[in-house]
């Protein structure tokens, strides 16, 4: 473990990224625990009044993100400064993405179906940064051998091909596969070669005069969503809390803090 940490985190200069990811995840978890306790009226936060002036935690999140980002630029690469700025940045991003859905919809949709986008964005961000920390980016390791340096050329070509396939997957309406395809070798090929989703730019452009392919696209999308959407929503509810029912939403404005 110590050798892996030295070789893949400390030596390439990824320790600030690890600190940022850790503080980001912890901030999101702590924030969701607090908001769910307030919502349920339990624990030390049960008596918090949500009336009056309410400042969403995206506001301090933005301030911390700005402070951490500019601080990292100004502090250089050595000393305690980069670590501190990484923690500030991670905390800020955790607060911002926890309310990502509110920024996207410009409304307090924290405990609604639209609010699931915040949880999804947090999970995607944590997963992508985690992949980078695990060494899926073929750059940044010092004191490498000649064989390792020669291998980087093929790695760069692989990344370029992955990016090309990621663009194809994105045009076919498969954004998640496209995101991970930029980092994980050849994962975007799956999305690029399979049938596009209905309504995607690819489907609108190339399936217009192909009724069989269009029907196949709709059928695959139906079976995919039926299989995975329920599981995805259960996972989101477990991580971030289940959204309110419409009847509760109509009588609730901002009851989480």
Automatic annotation (TrEMBL):
The keyword GTP-binding does not apply. The chain crosses the membrane at residues 15-34, 55-74, 80-106, 118-141, 153-170, 177-196. Keywords: Membrane, Transmembrane, Transmembrane helix. The keyword Cell membrane does not apply. This is Integral membrane protein.
């Amino acid at each position: 473990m110590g050798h892996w940490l030295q070789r893949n985190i400390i030596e390439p200069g990824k320790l600030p990224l690890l600190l940022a990811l850790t503080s980001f995840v912890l901030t999101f978890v702590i924030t969701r625990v607090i908001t769910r306790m307030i919502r349920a009226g339990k624990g030390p936060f049960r008596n918090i009044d949500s009336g009056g002036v309410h400042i969403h935690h995206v506001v301090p999140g933005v301030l911390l993100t700005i402070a951490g980002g500019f601080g990292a630029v100004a502090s250089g690469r050595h000393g305690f400064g980069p670590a501190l700025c990484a923690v500030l940045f991670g905390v800020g991003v955790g607060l911002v993405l926890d309310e990502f859905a509110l920024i996207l919809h410009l409304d307090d949709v924290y405990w609604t179906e639209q609010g699931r986008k915040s949880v999804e964005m947090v999970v995607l961000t944590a997963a992508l940064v985690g992949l980078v920390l695990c060494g899926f980016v073929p750059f940044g390791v010092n004191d490498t051998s000649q064989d390792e340096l020669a291998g980087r050329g093929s790695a760069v070509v692989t990344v370029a091909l992955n990016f090309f396939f990621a663009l194809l997957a994105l045009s076919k309406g498969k954004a998640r596969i496209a995101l991970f395809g930029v980092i994980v070798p050849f994962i975007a090929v799956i999305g690029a070669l399979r049938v596009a989703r209905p309504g995607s730019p690819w489907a609108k452009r190339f399936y217009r005069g192909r009724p069989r392919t269009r029907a196949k696209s709709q059928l695959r999308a139906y079976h995919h969503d039926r299989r995975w959407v329920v599981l995805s929503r259960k996972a989101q509810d477990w991580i971030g809390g289940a959204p309110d029912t419409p009847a509760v939403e109509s009588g609730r404005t901002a009851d989480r803090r």
